[in-house]
Amino acid sequence: MTTNGDTWKRNRLDLSKKVAVVTGGARGIGEATGYELAREGIKAVAVVDVAADVADFAAEGNAHFKRDVFVPFRGDVTDSAFRKRVFTEMQKQHGPVSICVPAAGITKDRLAVRLNKETGQSDVYPEEDFRRVMEIDLTAPIYWAIDTIASVAEDRARRGLKRWDPSEPIEGCVIFIGSVSSAGNKGQISYATAKAGLEGAQATLAAEAMFYGVRSAIIHPGYTDTQMVAALGRDFISEHILPHTQLRRLISPSEIAHAIVFMIQNSAVSGQLWVDAGWHPAV
Ligand SMILES: NC(=O)c1ccc[n+]([C@@H]2O[C@H](COP(=O)([O-])OP(=O)(O)OC[C@H]3O[C@@H](n4cnc5c(N)ncnc54)[C@H](O)[C@@H]3O)[C@@H](O)[C@H]2O)c1
Fold it and tell me: Is the shortest distance between the CB of 2 and ligand 1 below 6 Å?
């Protein structure tokens, strides 16, 4: 057997010439991912977020890294015209977007059916909430990913390149953010459905986008210490989450970001990665 410990380094995706888009990039897992990409020397990251302070976030990050690596875009990920503008601007300023981490997400949690014991009437999960969660957590990540693949495809066409060949470097990568909830989770009918749906999108795009040299994978984080989880409340976390993990603590956003960037850089990674701190929910 030949052992060459440096092969993975030779095959590693060179981020220094790559342009990424990270949605939900001003907070939590998206924020940590942008920082990890910058630490690894990426050329530029479009930080996309609806948060009012996305420009401040980018300015702080640029000061931290002493270079203009973060480009802020404030808007709603479900707005197609906004999405097109982000890709056009990044292409003009830095070159084609070839890496996508569509991390923006929301939860609207409640039981699918609640029964009023006194009246016997049922109260079902609101359809408008279900549709909104699908728009943000399922449709939007898929379209940000598709536009990333389109941007690489058009760039290859401009360079006269056809089907990607193994003698070429990998062009780009999409990492979807699933969740342990994709396996089903009480109280999360919309969120769990959206996250499970991303698995189908990932597997399909993995099969299609390699034509252009773009890989695709999905990470399933467990409960991570971000505003999304803090909103559950300290008591709920201590009682219903921590006892069902091996680590008995929340995962840090930077642990997830580290795993995401590993998935981007190591081209042998495909499919799903569970980064769940040993989450085994009680039935
Ligand atoms: N925190 C966890 O435990 C956990 C676990 C598994 C998966 N995830 C997933 O990770 C991703 C990031 O979650 P997080 O915990 O960092 O959440 P977070 O709430 O800390 O950050 C989400 C970010 O997305 C932005 N955002 C929300 N809706 C948006 C919209 N319509 N347009 C633009 N930006 C929007 C928010 O402003 C925020 O900055 C989500 O997809 C979430 O489902 C989180």
Answer: no
Please indicate, yes or no, if residue 49 is contained in any of the structural domains.
Answer: yes
- Ligand 1 centre from 8 Cα, in Å? 31
Strand extents, DSSP E, 88-231: 97-102, 113-115, 122-124, 172-177, 214-221
* CA dist., res. 102 & res. 45, Å (int): 12
Count of structural domains, the chain: 1
Give strand pairing partners of 177.
Answer: 219
Residue numbers of the domain that contains 43: 14-107+133-275
In a domain, 283, yes or no: no
Q: Is the CB of 49 under 6 A from ligand 1?
A: yes
Q: What is the 34 CA–ligand 1 centroid distance (Å)?
A: 13
Can you list the residues of the chain whose pLDDT is less than 50? none
Residue 163 lies in a domain: yes
CATH number of the domain enclosing 148: 3.40.50.720
Give residue-wise pLDDT tens across range 46-59.
Answer: 999 999 999 999 99
Rounded CA separation 81/229 (Å): 30
> Residue 272: its pLDDT value, please?
96
Question: Residue 6: its pLDDT value, please?
Answer: 81
Ligand 1 atom at minimal distance to the Cα of residue 191? 43
pTM: 0.97
Residue in 21, 22, 47, 49 to alter for ligand 1 test, most ligand atoms within 8 A of Cβ: 49
> What was the pLDDT predicted at 274?
96
Q: Which two tokens stand for residue 173?
A: 């990568």
As a whole number of angstroms, the distance between CA 115 and CA 153 comes to: 51
Residue nearest to atom 30 of ligand 1 (CA): 76
- Specify if 30 maps to a domain: yes
pLDDT tens-digit series, residues 64-102:
999 999 999 999 999 999 999 999 999 999 999 999 999
